[in-house]
Each structure stands twice: as C-alpha cells, then as structure tokens.
Amino acid sequence: MDAPTDEFYTVIGDGGGSLSDSRYDTAAARDLYRDMVRARRFDERAVALQRRGWMSGYPPFAGQEAAQVGAAHAMAEEDRLFPTYRSNALQIARGVPMSDILLFRRGRAEFHSDHDVPVFPQAIPIASQIPHAAGAGMAANYLDEEWASLVCFGDGATSEGDFHEGVNFAGVFDAPTVFFCENNGWAISLPSDRQTKSASIAAKADAYGIEGVRVDGNDPLAVRETVADALASAREGNPVLVEALTYRRGAHTTADDPSRYRDDDPDLPDWRIKDPIERFEAFLRSEGVLDDDAVERIRGEANDEIAAAIETAEDASLPDPDDLFDHVYAGPTGTQEKQRSELEAFLENHDPQELEFG
Ligand SMILES: Cc1ncc(C[n+]2csc(CCOP(=O)(O)OP(=O)(O)O)c2C)c(N)n1
Ligand SMILES: [Mg+2]
C-alpha cells in the first residue's frame, strides 16, 4: 500500500471547494465553526489566567482548532478518546466541561464534574497513551463491542518506541483504533524534518500494514470526513493512521519562547500557518452560512461559557497536595515516602489553598 506523501485531502483548500462538495450540511458546518470559536476563546483565556499565576503552566493549541474539532465531530458517542496536553479543543468539542480542563491544570487528577464523555486522562509523557489506546481497541474486540479508540499525539511522538509498539499491536490484533497525529511542524524546538527522514508521518503506517492518510488539518470539513472514514474502517478491524497537517501558532507552552528557534515566516504553505478559524469563517461567509449577526452571537456565547467555567473552577477547592503521590506506582517507593514527609513538613508552615503558582 502506498501512503501518499505530497498529497492530502482538502475541501476548502486549493482555491476553495463548496460545502456541497463535502458530506455535511449547513447546520453541521456551523456547529464545527461554533466549537472552533469556543475552543479558541478557552485557549485565549487560559493563557491569560496562567499569566496571572492562576495555574503553573499551559500548552496553547491555537492554530490546531480545525484538526481537533473536525476529529471530535467525527467520533460516535461511545468512541474512546485518548487526549494529550494539547488536545483540549478536542475535549471541549466532545463535551468535556471547560471547568474540568481548567481544574486539571490546577492540579486535579480526576475530572471535577460527572460528565459522561468517554475520555481518558490527558497524557503528558509523550506517546505513552498510544499503546493504551491500542489496548482499549483490543478490549472492544474481546468484549464484542462496537466502539473505536481515537488517540491524539504530535509529530514528535512518532519518534517514540510507544508509537511503534502501539501501532504494531493494533495492526496485528485488528484493534479498532484511529491514530490521530496532529503534525504541527514542531516538537518544542525541533522541526518535523529533524524528527524523521520518512517522507510523511502517514507513510509510517506502511511498516505496520495499516492504512495511512494525510489531510489538510486546517480544514475542519476535510478532517471530519477523513476521521469519520478512519473510525468506520477501524470498527471493521482496520486501524488507520491519520496525519493532519497543521501548525502551532503560539508557544509550545507558556514556559516557551518560540522566537528563539523559529521564524515568524516559516517555510510552510500559507494555508497551513494561517488562522484556521479565519479561513473557515471566510469560507462559510462566502457560502452564505454565516453573517455578522451569527458570528457575533457565537462569539458572545463562547465568552459567556468560558466566564462561567472560570467561576466554577474558582469555586472548587484546590486538590490535596498529598494526591501527588497517588497512582504513580503500584505502591509507594522509598523516594516517594521521603518526598511525602518533606512536603508535609513544608505544609505545616504554608496553607496550600493560599499558595500562588507561577
Ligand atoms: C517521554 C517524554 N519525553 C520528553 C518529554 C518532553 N516533551 C514535552 S512536549 C515534547 C514535544 C512533543 O512534540 P509533539 O509530539 O510534536 O507534540 P506537540 O507538543 O507539538 O503537540 C517533549 C519532547 C515528555 N513530555 N515526555
Ligand atoms: Mg508537534
């Protein structure tokens, strides 16, 4: 099987198709746009909150909304999501409350609300979630259930052993799993062409006997179609690797300064580095799907939603510092016990609810 390298699927790119070229109607397209705006507003407010010491760090996803929201809208209700630290737009579009995501960044290990979206905790160690997702897919087979796993990761994660082990297992055991790679061009300061000599990320699927596809990751219609097809194929026992071509517009995290390692004018095509929300909005306006009133209403609702989420998060107590030591290993190690007593001694003189981050 030949994975495409310089080809990728797009609906709105290449001079622009029309909505009727896609599989989706006006309402579905407007919903995609709405979730992209909700996610962007979340991202902007989260960065601002971090800057005032509300949380210790935050990884912005601006620029990747089309990829993430497109993928979220392709998932069936019972499909399992395995996100990373950067997949917050995907979680928001899936229905995870914004306040839960904010509280995770304030140290909560578990979801605060009792939402029923089947989503695993976001992975911070790169690629560790990939074998988990393949294993979950195998579980769906054992249980004879119809759902698939969708696992998110970046271009950099494909250089980790866990990526290769996970994809290999899924291929061998026909695990219903979609490997969703957001190729945003960078792994912190390392550009994709220093990450791999492969002609594409999608090409790596070949080695494991599964299908690999490339899609315009800044076109939510194209991503939604591609991921919907990939999930359908996965549910039939054929896992798929999807490479969504996108770009991280901001810093890697709030602790990073990208001007130290990349130019403002990167060597990537315009469609990839431009704002996907502006691009999709222009498309929908030209299709008569959006006008000023609709845009204003959607933005207003997004502002209200994030404001309410921040209030909910501020009303919640901070986690017990002792939680830090739970679930790290099957049982506590000597080093952990030492760290726990050092923390206890520190907290005798400090109230954790009063501590400021940053
Ligand atoms: C196992 C592991 N090694 C190193 C790190 C440090 N680290 C955090 S993000 C990152 C780069 C990941 O790049 P990519 O997979 O492209 O995802 P992106 O951040 O671009 O979304 C690295 C090396 C980590 N979190 N986990
Ligand atoms: Mg990356």
Automatic annotation (TrEMBL):
Keyword terms: Oxidoreductase, Pyruvate
Keyword Manganese in annotation: no
Keyword Signal: no
Domain of life per record: Archaea
An example molecular function term from Gene Ontology annotations: pyruvate dehydrogenase (acetyl-transferring) activity
Dehydrogenase E1 component domain segment(s): 34-321
GO BP of this protein: branched-chain amino acid catabolic process; sulfur compound biosynthetic process
InterPro entries the record matches: Alpha-ketoacid_DH_E1_comp, DH_E1, THDP-binding
EC number: 1.2.4.1
One matching Pfam family: E1_dh
Enzyme class (EC, first level): oxidoreductase
Protein name: Pyruvate dehydrogenase E1 component alpha subunit
